[in-house]
Amino acid sequence: MTAFNERFRELRKKKGLSQRELANVLHMSNSTVAMYETGKRQPDFESLEKIADFFNVDIDYLLGRKDTTNRIVE
Question: Which of 2, 5, 8, 44 has the greatest count of CB atoms below 10 A from its CB?
């Protein structure tokens, strides 16, 4: 099972974003993104929703509770 911090880092890298760029897009501090990636901090529910929406993934996928995601078709 993949931990949130690993999945978060993986999604950021797949988008080709730096931590600073992702922080700007999500309206978070750079240090918050860094702490999420190192596992030193966990997001609250509101932040999880924002991250899931940005990456177009399920929250369960973000949390590592499942290995696939039901992508939202727009």
Answer: 8
Element (H, E) at 63: none
pTM: 0.88
Give CB contacts under 8 A, 24+ apart, made by 21-30: 25/54, 26/50, 26/51, 26/54
**Residue 17 to residue 51: CA distance in whole angstroms:** 14
Q: Report the b/e string of 45-61 with b at 16+ CB within 10 A.
A: eebeebbbeebebbbeb
- pLDDT (tens digit, 9 = 90+) per residue, 31-44? 999 999 999 999 99
